[in-house]
Amino acid sequence: MSQQQPRVIVVGGGLAGLAATIKVAEAGVPVDLFSMVPVKRSHSVCAQGGINACNEVARQQGYSEWIHMDETLYGGDFLQHQPPVYEMTHWAPKIIDLLDRMGVPFNRTAEGQRDLRLFGGSLFKRTHFTGASTGQQLLYGLDEQVRRHEADGKVTKYEFWEFLWPIIDDNGECKGIIAQDMRTMEIKPFLADAVVMCTGGNGMVFGKSTMSVICTGGAAARCYQAGAWFGNPEFIQVHPTAIPGEDKCRLMSESARGEGGRVWVPRKKGDTRPPLEIPEAERMYFLEEKYPAYGNLVPRDIATREIFFICEEGYGIGGGRMVYLDVSHLPQGTKDKLKAILEIYEKFTGDDPTEVPMKIFPAVHYSMGGLYTVFTEQEKQPVPGDGDVVIGMKDGAPNNMMTNIPGLFAFGEVNYQYHGGTRLGANALLNCIFDGLFCGPSLVNYAKEARKTPASEVPQSVIDKYVAQEKAKCDALINSKGKANPYDIWRRLGDEMTAAATVVRTEERMVQALETVKKLREEYKDVCLSDTGMWTNQNLSFTRALNDMLIYAEAILVPAIARKESRGSHYRPDFPERVDDPFQKTSIVKFVDGQPELSYEDVATPMVPPRARTYGKTS
Amino acid sequence: MTASDAKKNFYIKVKRQDGPGKNPYYQTFELPYKPNLNIISCLQAIASNPVTIDGKQVAPVVWDCSCLEEVCGACTMVMGGKVGQSCSTLVDELMERDGTGSKANPITLEPMSKFPVVRDLFVDRASMFNNLKDIKGWVPIDGTHHLGGGPRESQEEQDLRYALSRCMTCGCCLEACPQFSLEGNFVGAQVFGQTLYFNMHETGATLKDDRLNVMQQAGGISDCGNAQNCVEVCPKELPLVEAIAKIGRQTTVHSVKQFFTGKK
Fold first, then answer.
1. Which of A1, A77, A310, A450 fits as disulfide partner to A446, beta carbons 3.0 to 4.6 Å?
2. Contacts of residue A344 in chain B, CB cutoff 8 Å?
3. Is A166 in a helix, a strand, or coil?
4. What's the whole-number mean pLDDT along residues B32-43?
5. What SS3 string covers A205-271?
6. A94, B139: Cβ pair inside 8 Å?
7. Chain A residue numbers touching B234 (CB-CB < 8 A)
8. Residues of A in contact with B132 (CB under 8 A)
9. Contact between chains at B18 and A245 (C-beta distance less than 8 A)
10. Which residue in A37, A96, A111 is closest to B66 by CB distance?
11. Residue B264: what pLDDT?
């Protein structure tokens, strides 16, 4: 397996992975791109609402990249390192321009300019969009450019290949991966001088979420077990508006509210009248009443808690756990912009949301936390609108968004940076593409110069050790004569995590959940496959990932129990206030002797001092 | 059997195939009825307890899926004889449409017939992605450095391009097409839609001739029989008839130009 020129491995073909692939290929370094699905089917397609960036219209109304940064920090309850947020928000307008050049069909104004919509956590229109399926169009735009590089021979795709483990040499540097062909079940080593994980979130740990079934968090949890650290894994976003379903909770985009959709419940508890028969005066627009400035567009954690509590108080539809999301009053042109999500609602529920209000409830949606990463700071030249002290990231620094394992990077949702305690709507697409474009050159620079030894010098014995480890794992599962059903363990894990560690988190309940997860880990040792063949064995892949989900669940619960404060999405009724001393810190979770070990690290807040996060609440 | 009867159980018959070149066979499963159940939920239930109506423990059914909200295109299959996404196809719909679901007349699930079977309901659609390479399905930008925005676009143009951009490479149009076959070289409606999409973009159009050269070849636009089944089954309601007509015209003009200029 000798190789002369540096190579880069990208694991995951969503927005972050594709953007990184484009940058690395453009620099002339060959890329091997691994994905469990054809990259065009990655979970990024599920993003609906849009992508944030300062634009000329907003700028002339007083907006700036700096304000975008400030909104992101305020939304995230000041848990983020600020330099990466500075860099991301200042790059955002360039990213929109680039996507525009790639042919992404952004919605247009009458004059032919890019149209904008309002989104959560901002009083300015700064969200660019393509209908209500923006993630799909952005992903396709990048997919097309990657296909072009693939046709030129600069990119090799490994689709339907599953990442199993990072190859880490005796110097502690990551030098490639072990992967498995999900059809032939072949397990193979692949060497590279830099590896970047772009493997998204962990929604499946919570059972039903808005995420795709591939979002198990398994890849991240494997890196964690191999020695990579988690940063803030306890921060999980619960989206306020989803359609509850048997198999998953389907997202109903924030853009519905951005375009004027209103959330309400009947003023009378247990009112069983059909929604259209409830007159305006008898509807409680509780978000608008409590948050006059932001209204329905408060950040997601706040909207989620308000919806959750109003249902707890008995105001949910018919006394149940759902509220109305109403777009039926909007003009036809606006409904057209939301077509992609409104037709999904109709297909799955049979009700036409242009006529009748939708019934929605919060669901797990996004992982703010993820693999811990570092970066190199750099003082930047202020641009109009910036503050006095301006610190961003150094372009091309070989450690930007690298994990604690040299040579192993993390981009996109799996990277814990940028969002802190809560992510603002339409900042995820930005974060994913920014990581790929801005930090892609860091991969190149690391692979070419910063690494200690080239991948071609990894001893065969090291490679063989990892291949044997993964083959043994497969064999153990295939040959297990146990009785436990993996789907049953998974369902119980999801129920427990959703009950204990989502909208409301108490110490007592989370400690109980930790016990449950421990028990499930014991039961897992007795797990039994229903498919023991070696051809396209999805049962094996799922069951292997289940172990990783259980391990990830513990890494979420331990720092969540220890964080005795409320911040962003982490709401503790037993500790309802934010406590900056000592908790304005990153939770770092290391896998030590099979258990999570927690420590803390200060966050870099050179530019914006923390302030109370109220969003102008009236009562 | 109708959905309005509160049925306790219903039946699903699945076409199984253990691998490429293996003989297909059918197995029937009994599942508890719930309203609003989609086909994916049925397959998930079978996966967690793969026992047939004969009480036989079998390998779980293999199928392709990811997003479960009809935007990734993975979970396409043939349900009750009609192609669609198994996430957005509801058991109630099939029962009402076909009168199926009983033990004697179960709901059938089959893999698409126009693609090689990998296993059970999971097929290999690599050809659809490869075709996008052949037509140079991209906008040839100079590179990713900051060079300002893209061309302005009218709302009307964006409307049509957005509609075409929603193609999720699911394969429904090809499964339903009488001209498209596993063995033949006809590329089908997906490619015509994408060709129009890229030809419409100001920068994308610089590769228009290359794309139309592909459209001229055997298996290109002239092989389309205009049955228009594609547009009937497209889950995203792509304007495929319009795309076929426009690509037909563009190809004709292209051929005439080639004839007079002698350029290939």
1. A450
2. 69-71, 88
3. strand
4. 95
5. HHCCCCCCCCCCCHHHHHHHHCCCCEECCCCEEEEEEEECCCCCCEECCCHHHHCCCEEEEECCCCC
6. no
7. none
8. 144, 147
9. no
10. A37
11. 67
Could you tell me where in chain A the CATH 1.20.58.100 domains are found?
A: 460-596
**What is the model's pLDDT at position A536?**
98
Kindly report the three-state secondary structure assignment for every residue of A513-541: HHHHHHHHHHHHCCECCCCCCCCCCHHHH
B153 and A112 in contact (C-beta within 8 Å)?
Answer: yes
Q: Please report the pLDDT score of residue A257 as a whole number.
A: 97
Closest among B156, B243, B238 to B198, alpha carbons compared: B243
B143–chain A Cβ distance below 8 A for any pair: yes
Closest CA in chain B for residue A109: B155
Whether A41 contacts B64, CB under 8 Å: no
- In the predicted structure, residue A334 carries a pLDDT above the cut 90: yes
Looking at residue B4, its pLDDT comes to: 47
CATH of domain A8-235+368-457: 3.50.50.60
Q: Which CATH code fits B125-261?
A: 1.10.1060.10
pTM: 0.97
- Specify the pLDDT at position A618: 85
Q: In terms of CA atoms, which chain A residue is nearest residue B153?
A: A112
- Check residue A246 and give its pLDDT: 87
Q: Which residues of A are designated catalytic?
A: 300
Cis omega (within 30 of 0) for bond into A606: no
pLDDT of residue A450: 86
Fold of A239-364: Flavocytochrome C3; Chain A, domain 1 (3.90.700)
**Closest by Cα among A149, A155, A123 to A9:** A155
Match 């293999």 to its residue by tokens: B62
Handedness of CA A302, A241, A51, A285 (dihedral sign): negative
Residues of chain A within CATH 3.90.700.10 domain(s) are 239-364
Mutation choice for A interface testing from B68, B117, B135 by most A CBs within 10 A: B68
Q: What percent of chain A has pLDDT over 70?
A: 99
Give tens-digit pLDDT for A362-372. Answer: 999 999 999 99
- Cβ <8 Å between A535 and B149: no
pLDDT tens, A302-329? 999 999 999 999 999 999 999 999 999 9
CA dist A478 and B102 (Å) reads 35
- Would you state the pLDDT for residue B1? 46
Question: Which among B138, B202, B236 is the top mutation candidate for probing chain A, defined by the most A β-carbons within 10 Å of its own β-carbon?
Answer: B138
| In CATH, A460-596 is 3.90.550.10 | no
Instruction: For chain A, give every residue range classified as CATH 3.50.50.60.
Output: 8-235+368-457
pLDDT digits (tens, 9 = 90+) for A440-468: 999 999 999 988 899 999 999 999 999 99
Contact (CB<8Å) A98/B152: no
Residues of A in contact with B90 (CB under 8 A): 348
Superfamily of domain B9-122: Beta-grasp domain (3.10.20.30)
DSSP 3-state assignment of A22?
A: helix
Which among B38, B65, B144 is the nearest to A437, CB-wise? B144
CA gap A197, A163 in Å, rounded: 9
The alpha helices in A353-459, defined as continuous H runs, are 428-445
Question: What is the rounded average pLDDT of the residues B168-190?
Answer: 97
* Rounded Cα gap, residues B92 and B108, in angstroms: 14
Radius of gyration (C-alpha) of chain A in whole angstroms: 23
A343: which 2 tokens?
Answer: 């037709």
**Angle formed by the axes of helices A15-26 and A428-445, to 10°?**
30
HEC profile for A282-336?
Answer: HEECHHHHHCCCCHHHCCHHHHHHHHHHHHHCCCCHHHCCCEEEECCCCCHHHHH
**Triad A398, A402, A407: Cα angle to 5°:** 75
How far apart, in whole angstroms, are the C-alpha atoms of residue A190 and residue A169? 13
